[in-house]
Amino acid sequence: MGPLLTMSNEWSYVAALVIGILFGFILEQAGFSSSRKLAGVFYGYDFAVIRVFFSAAGTAAVGILYFDYLGWLDVSQIFINSLYLGSTIVGGLIMGLGFVIGGFCPGTSIAAVAIGKVDAWFFVGGTFLGVLLFDLGYPLYKGLVNGYNYGPVKIHETLGMSAEIFISLFALIAVIVFAVTALVQKKVSDPTKTY
Amino acid sequence: MNGSKKYMNPYFAGFILGLLILASYFFTGDGLGASGAYKRAAAKLEGFVSPSYVENPESSAYKYFTDGQDPLKNRLVFMVLGAMVGGFISGSVANRLKIRVEHSPKITAKTRLIAAVIGGALFGMGASFARGCTSGAGLNGMATLATSGFVVVMAIFGMGYAAAYFFRKLWI
């Protein structure tokens, strides 16, 4: 029963390396090594971000639920990020601004660095600077970062429904979003342009 | 794009990315991540510059030194190194390896690079607050049905769309 490797197992580093290689490969294959393609999600000319992101989240969520149901994965043993409500919202808002200004997120910038995008090299440098700045100012917002802690709560519990119902709703919403964004992209995008 | 291969179908890419996340939880008990490697690299540098700073429990880097290991000896660091290799392999087979600054024709390369540094810095700060970036907090969070994942994704895209108008000259 999974998870097969504990964090202290040296093989978990090998697993992480292999998973990382596949991660970078998929991101680059999907075109996420291009900031102009990624930024298209905010201007309607390319919704690849929404398509890849929500397909991946849905597939993984259904998969984890099935693995749990079949007894292949002990979900109580996997890491669930806790909800520090204030810090999570502030962090998300700052990242949203970073996304629309920088055109990458940390994962996609790594794939872009690998194929020679100089703007991604600068983004990576900026990310490192940002982390250092956060660390320097940490005493100022330590309370916010560690406050409003609701623990590793699950979305279906927060909404008061079963996981199965939530995933079904999520899939329905995803299909509607895919359809609407396809229509928008058809109107907005210029077919002569590729990124 | 002269001679470079077409990108993968985004729904198929998402599907296999989802399977990869599932495999990651099955093997290691945790998902994907990118910003974690930066946190650890920054902690390493801070420890190098000022050992007393990271020994202070009040510092944000303190937690990366408590297990007595090098902060860089972590799965997230290996994952990012792997992602770079994987991106390079993909770029090679798709004929996309080229050193260049990619930017909208309406802005200069210099403007693009400045925006990239600012955007990166914001992402570094934001990911520190949210305990992970689009992958580590967003994608993993949604995959595990963590409320935090859905909150952070709504905040990222909400802010992205709200601010898009003001930065449109960078892209369109």
Largest interface, with Cβ-Cβ < 8 Å? A-B, 133 and 122 residues
Main sheet record of chain A? none
Total strand count of chain B, please?
A: 0
What's the number of helices of chain A?
A: 9
Helix-strand topology string of chain A = HHHHHHHHH
User: How many DSSP E strands of chain A?
Assistant: 0
Strand fraction of chain B equals: under 5%
Task: Please tell me how large the radius of gyration of chain B is.
Answer: 19 Å
Flag low-confidence runs of chain A.
Answer: none
| Helix fraction of chain A by DSSP (H/I, runs of at least 4) | 55-70%
Q: Can you tell me the overall shape of chain A?
A: globular
Low confidence ranges of chain B: none
Which structural class should the secondary elements of chain A be placed in? mainly alpha
Distance separating the two termini of chain A:
43 Å
The shape of chain B, in one word, is globular
| Separate helix tally of chain B | 7
Mean pLDDT of chain B: 95
Quick structural summary:
The complex is a heterodimer of chains A (195) and B (172). Chain A is mainly α.
Explain what the structure shows.
The complex is a heterodimer of chains A (about 200) and B (about 170). Chain A has about 200 residues and is mainly α. Chain A has nine helices and no strands. In chain A, helix 1 crosses helix 5, helix 3 packs antiparallel against helix 9 and helix 5 runs antiparallel to helix 6. The relative contact order of chain A is 0.15. With about 170 residues, chain B is mostly helical. Chain B has two domains: about 100 residues, no CATH class; about 70 residues, no CATH class. The longest helix of chain B has 22 residues. The two termini of chain B are about 20 Å apart. Chains A and B meet through helix 1, helix 2, helix 3, helix 4 and helix 5 of A and helix 1, helix 2, helix 4, helix 5 and helix 6 of B.
Topology of this structure?
The complex is a heterodimer of chains A (195) and B (172).
Chain A: H1 11-29, H2 35-43, H3 48-69, H4 85-102, H5 106-114, H6 118-136, H7 138-146, H8 155-159, H9 163-188
Helix pairs in contact in A: 1-5, 3-9, 5-6
Chain B: H1 10-28, H2 35-49, H3 51-54, H4 75-93, H5 109-130, H6 134-143, H7 147-164
Helix pairs in contact in B: 2-4, 6-7
